[in-house]
Amino acid sequence: MPDFPLPDNESERLASLKELDLLDTPAEDRYDRITRLACDVLEVENSAINLVDEQRQWGKSTCGVESTEGPREDSFCTYAILDESITVIPDARQDEQFSDNPLVVGEPHIRFYMGHPIHTEDQFRIGTLCVFDSEPREVSPEDKRILKDLAAIVDSELQRSQLNVERTRLRTQLEEAERRSRIDDLTKLWNRRAVFDLIESEVNRSKREGLQLTVGMIDLDDFKEVNDTHGHQVGDQVLRTTAQVLRQSTRDYDVIGRYGGEEFIVMFPES
Description:
By secondary structure, this protein is of the alpha+beta class.
């Protein structure tokens, strides 16, 4: 038996999560908008849309932290998906269940946590929208209502299908390990290899169906000076911000990738 509790419908829940085909996919602004809003409205340091896989937690979107991926046994969200109620931990250091949790005694030093389940179309709890902070906090009924409303928006996004045919094909044909290798770790965009495969498929489709296709190449001028003057940590943040701007400025079914270094590619199907 695992070192964490399982929902009664764990097998069906995992099957629904896999069918959603969202694990290990690039960041998307439609989800990032929600985590940013959660941080702003609830005035917390961090928020995340976490999916609870068989042995791990994986963050589809985060705000305030770069990643929330980790072992399922350490995940607060493992407990938040056990029922439909909102899970609130005002001070994890004072909580018997979580006081020695690695995420409490170490980074990101969680004290406060609040999580609401998110669902697939068939209403399986496949993860949470959660907020957390390094300071303890009490929540109000209004705080809970806001999180519940935001989680409902996540549910709506999960149940939409706005991916183009070729991106769907790439997701369904690749094994999980290979798909992970096609995501750029820094920007959470498709990497060069994945973008070239998508472009090749879309070019062939456009020729076959007589469609227009636009591909844009984007290069950050004088980027070396950013690294030389401010350091690579600032340079990495510039690249992450650029990726975020690109996601915000394109359609859901456009394809965005990091070509290499400070270069990006955007493909606009049917335009």
